[in-house]
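Quick start: what a row looks like.
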Amino acid sequence: MKVCGICRREFDEHEPRSLYGEAGEWLAAELWQDAGELCQLCLENRARLSMMYCHELNT
């Protein structure tokens, strides 16, 4: 079990990812360099927020 770098909850890093979770993983690796440090919920939220506010990524 790991602790999420944003919400501080424990999470299983091998938990299956949703589509938003996969997008959040990509963002974590490519933009914020915190891959592997976030739980599924925070990855999904990051992806949703990026779709709404990071228009330069929606190409």
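That is the whole record. The mean pLDDT is 93. The longest strand covers residues 2-3.
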